[in-house]
Amino acid sequence: MSNSHLFMKTGFPRAALNNGIGRYVCQLQRVTIKFCKNNGSSRGVRDFLEHDLVNFAKENPGIVVYVKPRRHRTPALSAEYLNGEKQLLFCRNYTREEVNKWLGLLRSQVRDTSAIRLRKMWHTDNPSIQGPWTPWTFRDPAQNLVEFPDPKLFKMETEQQTATEKLLEIFKAQQEAERKRANETG
């Protein structure tokens, strides 16, 4: 077993900014589109900028979009999220539709630390101040000194009557009642 888990962040998996509890907050804060004006591998990114960038900015007013032309470099999308995480996606030879789909994915996903070491299998934001419940929580403390089996606390199995025995008694009582009626009338 390796010790690589010692260098991982520890914590509990949580929804970013309690997303889903109240209103939805888009986690993508900033997108930087980097491209080359002349290189052929940036053609899809340039087409996206000419045709779809304005619509994307209108549909997502909470996302800041930066356009950064660079000479002789591979086109890339750089995304920054509310929690400080960054993601870089290289878009070499992507079409306009592929760039649009990747931006949609970056917008909809929550980029948090994907590799965290879980401290426990369960977690609560509001721990109980009373402590955990056990089956002995509300029991009488006098039971601590009793030697079991104690007839005062529990009925012994020999004293209890089974359901079959009860039915046999009821049946015998009915038969005796019928005999007395038959003797009185006959």
Task: Provide a quick synopsis of the model.
The protein has a domain of 101 residues: 3-Layer(aba) Sandwich (Glutaredoxin), CATH 3.40.30.10.
- What is the CATH architecture annotation of the domain at 14-114? 3-Layer(aba) Sandwich
Q: So, the CATH homologous superfamily of the domain at 14-114?
A: Glutaredoxin
What are the segments in which pLDDT stays under 50 over at least 5 consecutive residues?
none
Quick one: how many beta strands? 6
Roughly what is the average pLDDT, rounded to an integer?
Answer: 83
Global geometry: elongated
The CATH topology of the domain at 14-114 corresponds to Glutaredoxin
Structural class: alpha/beta
CATH top level label of the domain at 14-114: Alpha Beta
In this structure, how is the largest beta sheet organized?
Answer: 4 strands, mixed
Task: Write down the secondary-structure element order.
Answer: EEHHEEEHEH
Spatial sequence of strands, sheet with the most strands: 3-2-4-5
Span between N and C termini? 93 Å
Instruction: Estimate the helix proportion, in percent.
Output: 25-40%
Strand content: 15-25%
Number of helices: 4
Using the CA coordinates, give the radius of gyration: 37 Å
